What does this fold into?
Amino acid sequence: MKTLVLPPDERALAYAKELIEAGEVVAFHTETVYGLGADARNDEAVRKIFALKGRPTDNPLISHVHSDYDISDLAEVPPYTEALRKAFLPGPLTMVYPSKGKVSPFVSCGLPTISVRVPSSPAAQAFLRAVNVPVAAPSANRSKHVSPVTAQHVLDDFDGDIPLIIDGGPSRGGIESTVLDCTGAVPQILRAGLVTREMIASVVGDCGVYHMRAGEKPKSPGMAYKHYAPGCRTAYFSADALSDAKRCYERERGAGGTPCFLAEHAVCESLAGYAALDLGASPEEMASNLYALLREGERKASLLIAVEPRARGGVMDGVRNRFLRAFGQSEEESGS
It folds into this structure.
């Protein structure tokens, strides 16, 4: 199979519609990361996503729709979510509702819920309007690999395996959408992202954070322990262990390897003479840069050495979640 990479023009959108209607999988741009999408109503098409990614079959998918799609056709919509939709959609917020059973049961992995997202990317909106069906889509990468923020990243993982990538340019948000459980009286964040707990609480008055228990079935994508991982050896150090991180770097270089740091801007300023990838100074910069730098690091380094950012709260909850999981750490192990 030849994988075409096309801009979201009339030709590409017509072809995407044909493919989706035929039960095929199409990769498409969103403002956060690229998605690997198929008709959420089609059992075989949804199963194809899991097979292509090598994704565990207990890890639910998000259904993407355009901004004029009637979400109430898919879900039981609690009244308080109207204010959230007005405040944040289209945008990087996924809301989990009680499902009306209109999509394949494979989308929600047997759960009685449906996760719905309305991306703000013009390319995503054009694609979703063209197909005009709910599109189930995880990130367009092999399972556990770094999420893709360019069409080239998708091609690196799926060249020859999917027919079409709709290229909308780099995904500037950089980390996946916030996933918010709206099945209870008070919404709970299942996966942190660019729409923060504080932002949600300011609209509806309160917002909790869900912590997955051992042995529990995931309620949302991105709750697996090791995720977003680069394809090279890695090491992790807290912000207070920079001296240890430098010794690790020297050992790798002394053994003939090519070590490289991944750290926030303030740390990189103190790493003169060391190879380093600068995450940025602000939470937004770090969110935007993280996946692209993880992909760059796996290309250039034999050992990618992570130094955890110091900042906490807000957008950093999502950044740190991805950062820690990329290097096989948990919040508890990081001392947070």
Observations:
- The CA atoms of residues 32 and 173 lie 4 Å apart.
